[in-house]
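Researcher: Next entry in the queue.
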Amino acid sequence: MKAKTDWKGVRWESVKGIANNDFTRVIGLIPIAGYLILFNDEIAGMLSFDALAGVGEGERSPFLLDGLTKLRLVFFGSLSVLSSFLTYRLFRPEVLEVAKNDLDFSELVRQRYSVYELAQIEKHVYSNSWAERTESFWKFWGTQRSKKPVVSGFRPDVRAQMFSRHGDYIGFLAREWWDGMMHTYKPARICSLVFGVGGYVMLAVPSLDVA
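Model: Structure for this entry, 211 residues:
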């Protein structure tokens, strides 16, 4: 068995860094204000940056882009970043909000998850629709793990005993499930990345031109 993993750069934990940060939470206000600025000729003329560069009227501008083009790039760039943020918020796995990686989630499971919740995770991972993600869970001592439930059948009042007997198994099970969640909704992940990276590029061009 070979684990079916996507490149880390297109998994949800990487998409989060592009689509859900302090900048993207603020950028949503720019298209609203930008719309008013973009279609107001007087304001657009004031934002040509020629005065900043010390260029008088009739003189050649030192910038590669005119003021209106810069405004358009900022407007559509911020709109693209906002689309990236909204796509992420709509499709991202909820577990990413409580654990930033598989090890954190494994520790969270040990501390807080009930036997019933563990059984549901195990049932999901052992279903026919599940794609194996981590070889460390599915292969041990050179043999393939059989899809035989281990968590099922334990009562909540013997939770401590279950973790004592199957602690390593539960830890690897949690990591396998977390990795699987990072592979959900691939088209949404790609769209969020494209919107985010494209938006940042459009926002960077006017800044570089002015700089």
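Model: The first strand starts at residue 139 and ends at 140.
Researcher: Noted, moving on.
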